Amino acid sequence: MLIKNGMVLLDGQLRECCVQLESNRIAEIAPTIRERPGEFVIDAADHYVLPGFIDLHTHGLQDAMPQRGDWLRYARLQLEHGVTACVPTLFAAPEELIDSMRQGLAETDRFRRTPNLLGFRLEFPYVAKAGAGLASALRPITPETTQALFEAGEGFIRIWDISPELPDAEAFVRWACDHSIVTSLAHTSATIEQARRVVEAGLRLVTHFYDTFDVPTMTDPGVYPAGLTDYILVEDRLTVEIIPDGVHVHPLLVEKTLRCKGLDRVAFVTDSVLGAGSPPGVYDGLYEGARVEVTPDRGVRRIPDDALSGSAMTQLRCFQQAVRRFGRSIPEASVLCSRTPAHVLGLNDQGVLDRGMRANIILLDRELNLKMTIMDGEIVYRADEPQR
Ligand SMILES: [Zn+2]
């Protein structure tokens, strides 16, 4: 397959180039490439050719929520939003997590049927505060619980959230590093010292930064207090997730984070739930007995208490926000939505376009609308074709 005439993101710049694909890889990127006899050609004139989006933190999309068992439909919908890699995120009690993971592994044939789903992320049960989830699902860290979840995941747990103030947090982080699981600092009231200890133990990611973090308390009148968020901003070993919908994090704090951490240490994530990517309205079944209202300006709100319950974002909208709201260039937005998330997961053949990389590619028009998704060298979504 040959993609011609597009503005291709290469080495951090947009260049008019051709991209040739061979099976599931990028074979060549060059200003001109001669077309092979019979080769399928895509004319990408007036389009940006970018690496597919990667979302580290996502619970649901439109009417699909893996935790409820919609794995195949969820994977399909993600492709229709340009996401060629994501980590379905579960938040439930251990017994339910085990059931969900078993069901997901069976339904996706261990992710062979859903190559854009990378595995599992466990946001629960090892966090100190439930956020929008159920506090009754949280558990202390024990070797038995860890082992039961690890075995049910069959090696597919990619990210595991943890609050540093829980007893045995450091030992858990060391265990996770030994098992190639990324740990993420989450839902916490930890002190700076507690956080520093889990970073020393190997923790490298921060879960939806600023959301579910405490505001530091004033202890000495006249002295401005420093808290955990300040430590995170200047700790270069940590990459932070940000939900850039303007609801979860004030735009000033997003700007501050981008300036302190740099683009290589910020990953835009959706934290999307059921109803994300859908028209505004009321949706059923976020979890047992819960309904949510999706509104573009206020995110996703639980009914009836109006609590913020995840976002209505898609990774495409995160990308658009990076450009329109936060004034970043298209190459910079791609770093936030593809390259940095790939680094976090250690995916060294995704997140940028280059020879030898996986052929996971999206085409956006000049207004940043998604026109095409290519996954492993095959067109899996075209905006101009009716969807199933
Ligand atoms: Zn979440």
Structure description:
- With 388 residues, this protein is of the alpha/beta class.
- The protein folds into 2 domains: 2-49 and 364-382, Urease, subunit C, domain 1, CATH 2.30.40; 53-347, Metal-dependent hydrolases (TIM Barrel), CATH 3.20.20.140.
- It is 26% helix and 26% strand.
- The protein contains 9 helices and 19 strands.
- The strands form 3 sheets. Strands 1, 2, 3, 4, 5, 17, 18 and 19 form an 8-stranded mixed β-sheet that branches.
- Strand 2 (13-22) and strand 3 form a beta hairpin.
- The longest helix is centred in the last third of the chain and has 16 residues, at 330-345.
- The model has no long low-confidence stretch (mean pLDDT 94).
- The structure holds zinc ion.
- The site of zinc ion (ZN) has 6 residues, from loops.
Which key features would you list for this structure?
globular, alpha/beta, Urease, subunit C, domain 1, TIM Barrel, 2 domains, single chain, eight-stranded mixed beta sheet, 388 residues, binds zinc ion, eight-stranded parallel beta sheet
Cα-atom Rg, whole angstroms?
21 Å
In CATH terms, what is the architecture of the largest domain?
Alpha-Beta Barrel
Major pleated sheet: 8 strands, mixed
Indicate how many domains the architecture comprises.
Answer: 2
> Could you say what the CATH topology of the largest domain is called?
TIM Barrel
CATH class of the largest domain: Alpha Beta
Estimated share of beta-strand residues: 25-35%
Describe the protein's topology.
Layout (H helix, E strand, L loop, with lengths): L1 E9 L2 E10 L2 E6 L10 E3 L3 E5 L1 E6 L12 H10 L2 E8 L3 H14 L12 E3 L20 H11 L3 E6 L6 H10 L3 E4 L6 H10 L3 E2 L21 H7 L4 E4 L8 H11 L4 E3 L12 E4 L6 E5 L3 E5 L11 H10 L5 H16 L15 E5 L4 E6 L2 E5 L6
Parallel strand pairs: 1-4, 1-5, 6-7, 7-8, 8-9, 9-10, 10-11, 11-12, 12-13
Antiparallel strand pairs: 1-2, 2-3, 5-17, 14-15, 15-16, 17-18, 18-19
The structure holds zinc ion.
